[in-house]
Amino acid sequence: MKKLVCLILSAALIFALCITGAGAVEETNVAFGKYVSGEVNGQGNIEVTLGFWALEYLTDGLVPEYPSDNQDRLGWYAGAYVREVDMTVTIDLDGDYDCSRIYLYPQKFLEGTNFPSSYTVEISDDGENWTVVGQEEDLDGARSEPMAYGFESTKISYVKLHVTLLSSVADGNAFYAGLGEIEVYGVEHVEGQTDPGTTEPDPGTTEPDPGTTEPDPGTTEPQPATGDTAAIFAVVAVIVLAATLVISKKRAVR
Predict the structure, then answer these.
(1) What is the CA radius of gyration of the chain?
(2) pLDDT, the chain, mean
(3) Burial annotation 223-238 (CB, 10 A radius, 16+ → b, else e)
(4) pLDDT score for 24
(5) Which domain holds residue 243?
(6) I need a surface site. Which of 35, 45, 115, 133 has the fewest CB within 10 A?
(7) Phi and psi at residue 228, in whole multiples of 5°?
(8) 188, 210, 240: which is the final residue of a domain?
(9) 121 vs 196, more confident
(10) What phi and psi values does residue 230 have, to the nearest 5 degrees?
(11) In this structure, are 54 and 173 located in the same domain?
(12) Domain count, the chain
């Protein structure tokens, strides 16, 4: 009998631990494949239309090497006749998501020297009211690692990059700015669900190791955690069984 009770206790404890772990929801790149629009006020082009660059390439899940055998999709590239601009790139997430991280990847083309010099990263749940979650001023030089911006998990539907100063890269009378990819990590928003409680990096100060592998970009939509209740019942069962064992021992001694 004692061995049977111990076996049941062990099985219940393992079940509780497994259920608790299964309840966690993994963040994915919810910007993958989403629509990207752009606008520039003044003289300039929101896209350099040479076939290698396009706004839609910012969410295609690729940061191509350069040079390489396949150079058809290098990212996004924009130009203007002055460095100081009013240029916006907006991603429509096509839904509500609880997000906490945004990554801006430099292009491998020109070793990332075409990365925008001054910009803000903004989020919104309605496309009209925006909150700044990242900002840089006067960046310059080569860049190989993505810029990471972490913030408290927030329900959003749009992400905007507002560029105010292009890179120092110039060709004749024009200046340029380019990115390889934009990633936005989060989970599908569920009304009434509490903050998933992820630990966020310090905004704009921590750059992730470019060699790390991010979660598979948006191929499947995550589902809200459902294992918490079952985990509680399993833990309660463990406590009850343990109490029963103790009582049985006391009775046996008597």
Answers:
(1) 25
(2) 77
(3) eebebeebbeebbebb
(4) 61
(5) 2-22+228-253
(6) 35
(7) -65, -45
(8) 188
(9) 121
(10) -60, -35
(11) yes
(12) 2
Beta bridge partners of 250: none
Residues 6+ apart with CB under 8 A from 99: 27, 30, 123, 153, 154, 156, 184, 185, 186
Output the six-digit token pair for 208. 């992730």
Give the pLDDT score at 221.
39
50-75 residue pLDDT tens: 678 899 999 999 887 777 656 677 88
Residue with tokens 């948006």: 218
Both 36 and 101 in one domain: the answer is yes
Per-residue model confidence (pLDDT) at position 128: 96
Q: What residues contact 212, with CB distance under 8 A and at least 6 apart?
A: none
**Two tokens at 45?**
């082009």
Q: Position 25: which residue type?
A: V
